[in-house]
Fold this protein.
Amino acid sequence: MREGPHHPGPAPGGEALGAFALDTAVVLVWLGLAALYLVAGRAGVLRGRTGWPLRRTTAWLIGTGFGVVATAGPLAQAAGSSLTAHMAAHLLLGMLVPLLLVLGAPGTLFLRAVSARTGRHYARLAGSAPVRLAAHPLMAGLLAAGPTAVLYWDPAAFALLHHPVSGPLLHVHFVAAGTLFAYAVVGPDPNPHRAAPWLRGVAILTTIAVHAVVGKHLYAVAGQGSWPSDAEQAAQLMYYGGDAVHVLLLVVFCTQVYRTAGRRLRRRATPSARGRLGSAGAA
């Protein structure tokens, strides 16, 4: 069987230095995101806005940590020659890291750290037509799942991930599209045009189905054509690893829906409860 396209091994001299510089830049980007989050939190405290949940900060910092793991270091290096390692990096960048970043509620933290005038500008941007379209659950799901289906359906498209230009851009797309989708379906940040729960649920189930179909297809074609020799293991990781992240996503979604429905039920029950107390007092 012919092996699929892989990254070349580390080259001496300038190429090795360039790879080191790229890894350093990637690490600095993730560390910068972590630092900006902490600075925004401190700015909010200085403006008198305390009480930020620790779980938000924890989610954001863990998300940036996984981002470093997936884009620099041993896993990122192994992803150049192993489809299984690449799939692990893809699951982190495209699914788990975006969910953790969104659960960090960076938009809310930003609003706590800035003036009311800047917050109004942010609200207008969040409510603009392009953002509304991109943040629609179905559109966000298409942006997240569509390229994944194309890339892992045919080895010719999969080769784009090993290109020195398209590869990093696709990784950026995975993070951005995954974050947009997570924001659209479970984002705790303000969303002026949040879709109904049933529509967000449909979007989640659709992406789960697409992910499962692509994983099964990759498993079926393993050992054929120019797919790498470990395509079967990569397919299993994609299928079961994706399910694990999807379970986490569904838990967050169902928890949010339950809390919202519970508040509505309590508001509806309050008048009737007061009426019963009043009649009991009159009697």
